[in-house]
Specification:
Helices cover 35% and strands 26% of the residues. With 400 residues, the protein is an alpha+beta fold. It has two domains: 193 residues, 3-Layer(aba) Sandwich (Aminopeptidase); 160 residues, Aminopeptidase, CATH 3.40.630.30.
C-alpha cells in the first residue's frame, strides 16, 4: 500500500510538456486542451471510417463522459495525455497515452499505454503520434509502451488481426489492417492475443448439458440460478456482481478493480441497453452471489443507423436492432474461486442459451478471451464454439 500511496501523490491530470510541436515532416502535434479539440478527438474516427462497412460509431454521449476527467473516475489513478495530429492545418490523427499508476504499482511495472489510435494509412502521421507518446512516457520514467489498452480491460483493447469481415461488437475495436502494419513499422511486436468465439445456439440443448445441470443441482442443493424480468430486480445485485468481478478478474491483463463509483458509472453506461433476461446470477444459501454471466443483444446496426446519437430518435433504432438481431454478445462473467469446477458455468450457460433462443437469438459472440485462458477456451470449444476473431495487444521497449 505504501507504494500505491507514494505514486498517488503524482499529479494525475494532463501535465505533459507537449502543447504544440511540429516535426520535420510538417506534422503538427497538439495536446487536447479545449472543448473544441476534444470534439475533434471524439469525431475524427467517423471521418477515417466513413467507408468502413463494419465500423460502428461510439455512442457519442458516452464518449463525452468517458474522456472527461471530472466524470470518468478512472482518470484519478492515471496520468494521461490526448494528442491530435495536423498536416497543413487539417486534422489527420489522434492518440491517447495513459500511465496507470495503481496498476503499475500492483504489478511492479513501469508501463505506459496507448489507446484510441486513429489515422489514415500514413506512415508519417503514425510515427509522429507514436513518437510523441513514447517521448512523454520516457519523461515519466516508463520503460515499456503497450496497447491498444486504455484504463482497463473493460475498455476496447487490442487491434483486430483476424476477422476483418465480421461486424464490430460493442466495447471492442474495429480497425483497418493497415493500423496493425503502422504499429509494426514502429517496432511494436506481439504482447498477447485475445480470441473471440462464435457459438451456435442449439435447440434443443444437447442432453449432456442437462445431465450436468441436474448433477450440479443435486450435488449443490443450496445453489440457485436467479433470472430477471426487469432491470429493477437486477439493481440490488449490481454491487455483488461487480465485487465478484473484482475478485475473479484479478489476474487478467490490464484489469483494474472497480471502485464503488466506477460500479455506478458502469451500470449507468450499460444497464439500460441490456435485456435483464440476459443476466444470470447464481447465489448460495446465504443469498451471496457466487457466479454470474451478462449478455447483450448485438446493437451495432442500431448504433450505426442512429449515427451514435441516442436522442431524439436514436435510442429507438438501437432497441429495434436489439430486438431484430440473431446475435447475443457476452459481456462479462465470473465464478467465485471457491465454487469453480462444480459445473456452475454449465448451469448459467444452459439458462442463457434457453433465454437467448426463446428471444430469437441463434449465435453467441463470446467477447474477448485471453489466448492463455485455456480453461475458458476449452469450455467454449466444448459448446461447439470456434475462433472467428483475434485481437492483439502490442508492446515496445522504451529503453535505450
Amino acid at each position: 500500500m505504501d507504494k500505491i500511496e507514494d505514486l498517488s501523490k503524482i499529479n494525475t491530470t494532463v501535465n505533459s510538456t507537449i502543447k504544440s510541436a511540429v516535426n520535420d515532416g510538417g506534422i503538427e502535434i497538439k495536446e487536447v486542451d479545449s472543448k473544441k479539440k476534444l470534439r475533434e478527438f471524439i469525431h475524427l474516427p467517423a471521418a477515417i471510417h466513413k467507408d468502413h462497412s463494419n465500423w460502428v460509431p461510439p455512442i457519442y454521449m458516452d464518449d463525452w463522459e468517458f474522456f472527461n476527467p471530472k466524470l470518468n473516475k478512472s482518470f484519478q489513478s492515471c496520468e494521461t495525455i490526448m494528442l491530435l495530429a495536423y498536416r497543413k492545418g487539417k486534422l489527420v490523427g489522434r492518440i491517447m497515452g495513459i500511465i496507470h499508476l495503481k496498476y503499475n504499482a500492483l504489478h511492479e511495472e513501469k508501463n505506459a499505454r496507448f489507446a484510441f489510435f486513429e489515422t489514415w494509412n500514413d506512415d508519417e502521421v503514425a510515427a509522429a503520434l507514436i513518437g510523441a507518446i513514447e517521448n512523454w512516457s520516457r519523461e515519466k520514467g516508463m520503460e515499456r509502451l503497450v496497447g491498444p489498452l486504455a484504463f482497463s480491460d473493460k475498455d476496447p483493447q487490442g487491434f483486430l488481426i483476424e476477422g476483418f469481415d465480421e461486424p464490430a461488437v460493442i466495447a471492442s475495436n474495429c480497425n483497418y489492417p493497415y493500423q496493425v502494419e503502422l504499429l509494426e513499422k514502429n517496432d511494436f511486436t506481439k504482447e498477447i492475443d485475445l480470441v473471440v468465439y462464435k457459438i451456435d445456439i442449439p435447440s434443443p440443448l444437447p442432453e449432456f448439458y442437462r445431465k450436468i445441470q441436474e448433477r450440479v443441482i443435486r450435488n449443490n442443493p443450496d445453489l440457485k440460478v436467479l433470472e430477471f424480468a426487469s432491470r429493477k430486480k437486477v439493481k440490488p445485485y449490481i454491487y455483488p456482481i461487480l465485487n465478484l468481478l473484482n475478485l475473479t478478474f484479478s489476474d487478467i491483463v490490464g484489469f483494474t478493480p472497480f471502485s464503488e463509483k466506477e460500479m455506478d458509472d458502469f451500470a449507468n453506461r450499460y444497464l439500460f441497453l441490456i435485456n435483464p433476461r440476459f443476466i444470470k446470477v447464481i447465489v448460495n444459501g446465504k443469498n451471496e452471489v457466487v457466479a454470474f454471466v451478462i449478455g447483450m443483444s448485438h446493437i451495432g446496426d442500431g448504433i450505426r443507423n442512429a449515427k451514435g446519437r441516442l436522442f431524439p430518435f436514436g435510442i429507438f433504432k438501437i432497441f429495434a436492432a436489439a430486438k431484430r438481431t440473431k446475435q447475443l454478445n457476452l459481456l462479462l462473467g465470473g465464478i467465485d474461486p471457491a465454487y469453480r469446477g462444480k459445473g456452475l458455468d454449465v448451469m448459467m450457460g444452459t439458462k442463457m442459451m434457453e433465454s437467448a433462443y426463446a428471444l430469437g437469438k441463434r449465435i453467441i459472440d463470446s467477447h474477448l478471451e485471453l489466448e492463455t485462458n485455456t480453461k475458458v477456451r476449452a469450455e467454449m470449444e466444448k459448446m461447439g464454439g470456434y475462433v472467428y476473431k483475434r485481437f492483439r495487444i502490442f508492446g515496445k521497449s522504451l529503453k535505450g
